Amino acid sequence: MSTSDDETTTDRTGPLHGLRVVEVGQLLAGPFCGQLLGDLGADIVKLEDPGRGDPLRQWGRERPQGQSVWWSIVGRNKRSVTVNLRSPEGQDIARRLIADADIVVENFRPGTMERWGLGYEALRELNPGLVMVRVSGFGQDGPYAQRPGYGAIGEAMGGLRYVVGDPSTPPSRMGISIGDTLAAMFATIGALAALRERDASGRGQVVDSAIYEAVLGVMESLVPEWQLTGYQRERTGAVLPNIAPSNVYPTRDGIWMLIAANQDTVFARLAAAMGRPELATDERYATHVARGERQKELDDLIAAWTSTLDADDLEALLVEHAVPVGKIFRPVEMLADPHFRARRTITEVEHPVLGGVQMQNVFPRLSRTSGMIRWPGPALGEHTEEVLAELGMAPEEVAALRERGLA
């Protein structure tokens, strides 16, 4: 087990302790929402199909000893219950669990839950205070609602894919499933907002988080730039046009360093670090607009300087001059970095098969009631007997369901 703060604090339960969440989603968007809520202390009961489970259990490039390390993160703090939601018995179990829940999270194609008798209108009859979080590609209504909507499609239609990559290549992807995780983050915010409103009204509601809208939500001023001025953002590689200097620069020992010194006062400090203080008052570089107009020229000048220094020396010099600088980290650098270690940004969680698994800790940190990782992603159906017993089901009832492939 791991806490996100003080190792001597073993009784932390998180700010959402006491909340019951039933998660019926799979793959990433719904389960990541469940992970975030579970990290902060909610009791996450994850319903999975018997025999198959969440497909995410099989995902990830590396699967040591047949285990998905990705699942160990996304499934952490959850209780796995196997139940066949396509059967009347499974649907009845889901209704009984949801009747006492605060939140239900699902990310199936719109209409799926309704076909199972688990739509919001039916569930709120059982539980008027229920908050139903629904994550989908295109939202719960509109002409595209019934389309399959993976995260990649949301990234494309939300505007992100077009602006990512080098201008000489086709649109690129981010290297992670950013569309799904953004939709999950917006879903989590919506769930917490709905719970806050429930405190006043006593009523639940639906949180409708569409992947393409979540992506669009972080696209800054992309739309009004086009609407008001006709400016279309294009792929620009490692830079943002007219924001200079802010780029990756080479060092003598072959390491790329990111330097962000586009503000006037910060650029002056960079110029001093370079031994070229006159650059800060040179009319070609003295202002934000001037530096933007000469972006490549300025980047070439800085790159010529950084190439004369080793990365560690460059970093130390720029830190001394209060210039934002950072190496391009991979896991090997993260695990060795003293700041990561001091804040326990990466923590070790004991896994029953893999032993100690190092993974990202719980974020954000709360000063009094921080969340914690209580266990990694569980085995399929690990908590079925435990959770169904809480519903009053006898062991022989659960065994009978298992024999029929329903649990």
UniProtKB/TrEMBL annotation:
<dbReference type="InterPro" id="IPR050483">
    <property type="entry name" value="CoA-transferase_III_domain"/>
</dbReference>
<dbReference type="Pfam" id="PF02515">
    <property type="entry name" value="CoA_transf_3"/>
</dbReference>
<protein>
    <submittedName>
        <fullName>CoA-transferase</fullName>
    </submittedName>
</protein>
<dbReference type="GO" id="GO:0008410">
    <property type="term" value="F:CoA-transferase activity"/>
</dbReference>
<keyword id="KW-0808">Transferase</keyword>
<dbReference type="InterPro" id="IPR044855">
    <property type="entry name" value="CoA-Trfase_III_dom3_sf"/>
</dbReference>
<dbReference type="InterPro" id="IPR003673">
    <property type="entry name" value="CoA-Trfase_fam_III"/>
</dbReference>
<dbReference type="InterPro" id="IPR023606">
    <property type="entry name" value="CoA-Trfase_III_dom_1_sf"/>
</dbReference>
